[in-house]
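Lab notebook, bench 4. Still working through the backlog of constructs that have no structural model yet. Next entry is a single chain of 393 residues. Request: give me the structure tokens for it.
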Amino acid sequence: MSIADNLKAIMSKSSLIREMFEKGARLKQQHGPENVYDFSIGNPNLPPPAAFLEGLTKVAAIHDQGVHGYMPNTGYLETRQAVADFVNRDQGVELCPDDIIMTCGAAGGLNVIFRSLLNPGEEVIVPSPYFVEYDFYAANANAVLKKAPAKADFSLSISGIESALNPKTKIVLINSPNNPTGQVYSAESLKRLGNLLEKASREFNKTIYLVSDEPYRRIAYQGVEVPSIFSFYKDSIFTTSFSKDLSIPGERIGYIATNPDLTYRQDVLNAMALSNRTLGFVNAPALMQRVLPLCLNASVDMQAYTRKRDLLCQGLSSCGYEFLPPAGTFYVFAKSPIKDDLAFVEALQEERIIAVPGSAFGCPGFFRLAFCVKDDTITRSIPGFRTACQRVA
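Model written out:
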């Protein structure tokens, strides 16, 4: 083959999430969409809030000269100011527009961060289970993703991260609320993690960065608060998107926020601005950047996600499944009734239920369900969950 060797290796590990999504599409063609219960992919089914749609209509009607032209690679100043103000209100910090870089979603943000910070062969430590695309983002930077086990309840294992730290460590990457588990990391665990990274940075005589991937920050339940990493470690950066809280994943809009106390702050900001351009993003979508200041305080209907969460959790419990109700996100990460999660996911497909095996997230023996679907999809799927569980018992 003529393609790059590293891409061949990546293709051989192609995402099981997408594979399940494609199986669902084939089953829908065979049985009809209404007869397939597809929980494979986190594609929000709620409409965007009214403030977004109103802002989009208003901005699209502007016909000023240059409105669709190039801009600074970091984004429009007025958008970065609005985002900085929003983060300051939300997290109790003091960012300025220069601390913000507008990106093509959180995925674009992570690739920009990795490209800017990582040398070939350096390592990114991530608690496992983790979002499978992280492997590919690290590979894009010629770096290595190293897994550290989480606790049994999927909270942060500080000892697990400590055992993974070594002189090659450059980034510790966390994701809270977590995909796939729905776990939210506590302030106490983040404080302990910050202390650990301060100690490791001194020991290895290098800056180790704490990077947080936060597209689900505003999808949290029952009064759960998502702590700000900036409060616990100065060399911290987070990236997020509006894909989930505004239900606009196809618009590819997000941002990077850097701790104002970051070591080598200006060098890092300059590197990320250059990476945003040279990775091919150039800048975040102009139209979306103009819409955001008009709807930053808006969000999807969290009552709807709470209802879907409760419907699925109650249904799974009635069938005898073991799981921890998610504190955030729109995923349930349940224990497979049999050790082989791949085999159990196939058993679910016999009931026209599409789930993603835990193996896709580095955690065999579990399966993930994305409940950002119609309520009817959840309620009609429960008999199939019961049948599949009974069949493998």
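Notes after review: Residues 50-294 form a domain with the Aspartate Aminotransferase; domain 2 fold (CATH 3.40.640.10). The chain has a mean pLDDT of 95. Flag for follow-up if needed.
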